[in-house]
C-alpha cells in the first residue's frame, strides 16, 4: 500500500520519485547545530515555527525512513529547554515560545514512539507553558502573554490534545479543561466567521476531531454539525469558484511576528468533506499540484521568492494524503487530472488584465502584487495551456463577460493598437459594463488617450500619480470590498 501511495504521489507531481522529493526537502530543512530552516531555503536561519511545520509535515510522511523520522523528532525535542522554553529565531534567540510554535513542536514530539520524551521535564514544562498562554475567559489562544489572539492559533493545540488523549499519556486530565474551553471558542468562531473563510475551515476541522473523540455534548454537537453543513455548502459560490483564500496573520509588537495559512495545505482539513471529487477539494488539490516547482523540487507557498521550507514540508504531506485518497476512491491520476482540468476550465477570476504588448512589464508588475495578495488573476501567459488550440475570440469573451469580477485595462496607445486588447477584449468589457451597473472596469492610464466607448465619468487612476504597485494595492482593496460574483 505504501509503495502504491508513493507511485500515485509521484504521478501527481510528474516526478520520478516522490520519496526522493521528500528526502531532498527534508535535507534542505535541516541546518547545522540542530536548527531548522526558517522560511525560504538559503536563509540558513533557524525558526521553531518552521521546525513545527517540518515535524508535522514532511517528517510525518510514511515514505521517510523511520530512523530519519525519529532523528528529526529528536532534533525537535532538543529545541525545548528543561524549563519548557523553545529555541528562538536566530534573529530573536530569546523569544521563540509562542503558542503557535510551541503547540506545533509539542505535537510533532508527541508523535514519537519514545515515551521517555513525553514524560521528560522538557515536554512537561513545555505543555505547562502552552496551557498557561490560553485565555481562560473565552478559550482563545494569544500568541504570547499579552499579545493578540487569532482563530488560527487554536488549531494545533487541538491536534496536540487529541493525540495526548488518544494515547492516554499522563497529561490526559491536564488538557481536559483547556480542550473544553477551546471547544467553546471554536464553536463561537464556526458560528460567527464569514462563511468559507480560513477561520471557519480550521475551526470546523478542529471540531471534527473533538467530535470524533466524543467530547461534544448534544447541544454542542448540534451546533457543530449545523455550522459544518453551512460551511461545506458555501465553500464554492454559485459559479463554482472556491471561496477560501490565503490568510495572513501578523502583529506590530516587538519582536514582530507573521504567519500565513496557505490555501493548498487546507486539503488536510477538507479532504473528508465530500471526497476527492467534490468541487472544493478539486480546486484546493489543483492549486497544490500546480504550484509545485519541479525545477526547484518544492513549493514557494504564497510568495514569489525562493522555495519555502514550511510550505514544501506541509505541501508534501497534503500530496501524500491526496494520493492515498485517490487510491481509496479507485480514481487513477490521469482521470483525476482530466476531471481537474475540466473543472478549472470554468473557474472564475477576481481580476482579468487587458493590455497592449509593449505594456506587458507594467501589467506583469500589477499581476504580481495582486497574486501575492491572494487574488485569482487572469494573465495571458499564466494560462497558455488553456488558450492553446482554442478559439480565442470565444474563450476571451467568456472570461471577460462571464467569469471575472473586475477587469483592469492598462490604457495607452499600445492598447488601442492591439488586435486583442483594444478589440476583442475591449468589446467584452464594454458588453459587461452595459449589463451591470456596479463598477467592473478599473482603468489605469499610462498616457492620455481617448478610448472609444469609455464613459468619461468612470473613475480612473493614472501612472503619473500612482505607481503600478500602488494601483495594485488599491485594486486589492476594491476587490475585497466590491461586488461579489
TrEMBL record:
Residues 347-483 form the TIR domain. PROSITE patterns: TIR. It comes from the Bacteria. This is TIR domain-containing protein.
